[in-house]
Amino acid sequence: MTRLSINLNKIALIRNSRDTIHPEPVEFARLVVAAGAHGITVHPRPDQRHIRASDCIQLGENRQTELNLEGNPFAGSRHSDRKGVEDYPGFLALVERVRPDQVTLVPDGDSQLTSDHGFDINRDGEALRPIIAQLKSWGCRVSLFMDPDPDQIALAGALGADRIELYTESYAKAHARGVADDELGRFQSAATAATSSGLGVNAGHDLNLANLPDFRVPNLLEVSIGHAFTIDALRYGIDTAVRRYLDALAVSQID
To answer: Which terminus of the chain is less hemmed in, N or C, by CB atoms within 10 Å?
Structure first.
């Protein structure tokens, strides 16, 4: 069964639009878990534009299910100039404090609106190797955010990571145009390469209720969904939105 992890970044973004503590990510974590979600994902960035370091700490202290912390492993500390917002301690320092169940390493930067590419293992692999070892020594499962490139994924298997997360924007765009078959084939090949390299397979980015049932990828362990889920939670309510995503995942399963 593929597990559903809900990304709470957009909940924090709503809160940050006002000088308030509401909505609280910890409260919404409890609500989505009570509705049947299997995990919680957050992706803090140094500018703390949505989820903040303090949120991650609170989620770690109040976790009711698996917590997945995403971020750039090379992101250092950053001073906050916003009232009431603590400094960003650096991604690895934050992971050491929170000790999430899973860490997903993502090569993003402040200039990106959202994550938009996976790691180039030829370029970054040797720098990632000791970081992966450190994270695993803290008891974290480690996943690498990757494009659906079997050659790159095969290289990732030698770094000591446990999983990859397939970056699915290209599939989502192709599905919206009604031409998803070829793109889906790329993801199926990438997942097969990951399994052959001893890596588990996660996926995320722009997956939604329309395209998730058709995302039939072998050995898919987890999907993380945030932006689309937040929209659907507003549309249907949290309980119904979670059920719809679980139903969509059930349709996508490969026997």
So the answer is: C
